[in-house]
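Could you join me in thinking about how sequence relates to backbone shape in a protein? Label the sequence line and the structure token line clearly, so we can match residues to local backbone shapes. Once you have written the record down, we can walk along the chain together.
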Amino acid sequence: MEKIDANSPESRSADLVAENIAALKALFPELLSERIVDGLPTVTINVDVLKGLVGDATVTDAEEKYGLNWHGKRRARQLALTPSAGTLRPCRDESVDWDTTQNLMIEGDNLEVLKLLQRSYAGKVKLIYIDPPYNTGSDFVYPDNFQDNIKNYLELTGQIEGGQQIASNTESSGRFHTEWMNMMYPRLKAAWSLLRSDGFLIASVDDVELANLKTLMSDLYGEENFVSVLVFDRNRKNDAKLVSVGHEYMIVFAKDRSLLKDLDVKLRSPKEGVDEVRSLFEQLRREHKDDWVRVAQGIKAFYSSIDPDDLRYPLTRFTFVDERGPYRIDGDPSWPGGGGPRYDVPHNLNGRPCKVPSRGWVWPTYVRMKEEIDAGNIVFGVDEKTIPSVRRNLFEKDEQVMRSVVFSYAQKASQDFAALFDGRMVFQNPKSYLDIQRLVEYYSKPGDLILDFFAGSGTTGHGAMLASQSGAKSRRYILVQLPEPLDADNREQALAAELCDQLGRPRNIAELTKERLRRAGTRVRASSPLFPVDTGFRVFKLDSSNIRAWNPNRDDLNGSLLENLEHIQPGRTDEDVLYEILLKLGLDLCVPIERRSVTRASSAQTISGKSTETAFTVHSIGGGVLMACLDASITVADSEPLAIGIVEWHKSLAPAGDTTCIFRDSAFENDVAKSNLAAILEQHGIKQVRSL
């Protein structure tokens, strides 16, 4: 039985450096060699061999080259590649719909969290959206010390006395841009490996760091993967004396733009839900025999927040219907033929009737008009309020394609955000959740995974829930937010601190993120009776590993030895340990977990669905891919019934791949108990047996 300790690979996040070295060694074994440096084995690259491998290409380490450079870049790169020894501890009492949700809200330093997510979520995220703290010369959190991010996190959250809570980034420091770049580089690098091959990363930024951030992203991701810079009207002006800037930017990169081209990917705003609404519309028409008032009332029962006159299909505005759809006779003399039937043309995205020019449509008949629409010769506006027009050239694109300069719903979103908190603006200038909803709809599909590791007020989670309203399958989200302390004496933070006090929660931003998700989820559920939306989330908090590291007290070595007989940190629960195992073995943190009881030697040797004081608790994760028993005591007599019980359950689960089985090392009475249990499991095909 192999033991997992603090030095085992399973006790840390993915080692990206080791993976890179292994990849190079597999491709070019002659390129790498090992030698001893300061008593430790070190891998070195033979530059002469590299030159031979790349032929005429130039290999150089010269400083004079095109690119972005700043003080600390090398250390920032090293920090991004340094594995994490932390873990994420589950918090059921702060979560919503723990047993069913597929969403995550993680509290902690996002760099450390990104490293911990590598094994479980590498290559699985479709869209990353971030709105990092802008470099305005004011204070911002995330002052990495390049040594111990867990310690850094604890210092920032006030859990270590004498630590610095925030780091100033003022112009007087002489490192106005450097501090911000050192903060962003390792996070952007760590996030990139989480993206799917067809994924996108979008970063919001203002004028101050736009040029630096775009160059940094090109340096990390390749300039060939740059997609665009979106310009968003923030609907608020600043007090600049020369130019009042009211917009911000979103830099868009694709993980592999050439792949998108090969796959002929065409990004369009989705038409999710249209088929469902059309089906409902036709059903109500048949039931009510084209009584439009009753049809409208029927649809309103499903869409309670929508005015019957403002639905996806024309209803009360038309008094007649035939095989072509609803119509009216308005007697408009400008209409060819002196006032014939007026058929609405539904907008190609939302199905609502488009605004019609006063002179009528260009083509006099419905059939002719539809032919032109089907041929792609009509350009629709962003919604039905814009008059459609005839396409003037082949390069003119429909407004369903994301515009490079986009109007923002910031003002409405701010008002709605305040309404969530009973009229209190607990966040200053929150991002528009309607803007994020549009981005999520545009760059992802139902069932896709969305990540935001600067979660702030939780706007991305809110937008993802709204984007899931019209589909049969919800988009998933992972949000990460540092529990940055709130100061009740700060005028801009006073309302937020007061709300935390009222909720009985610590005064920090992460608590507001969670509360916003709870309140927004309640609203989304109320407005989406037709399509169920996953409005829950599991809360996890960053902490040091549950596996105790050897850290002896030199003044009391005997005491240190006794303490380290138990390899689990004191105060940690079985669930804490279980989710660290999931994380380090690369399983989804929302994977299904079953629990059953296996009776001890003093009782019948079967698995039952009811726990008793004489029973072991056994966990099955992912349908038997991982099985764990973390009970504190396993005697020699217990080892056989426990092993047989696990084997019987494992057979009924019949997992497709190999199964790993894990136990507490300190639980075994002696080596006999351990070897007996491992031998029985191996005889029945469970060969990967580990202890910690």
Q: What stands out?
A: Residues 509-527 form the longest helix (19 residues). The two ends are 10 Å apart (CA to CA).
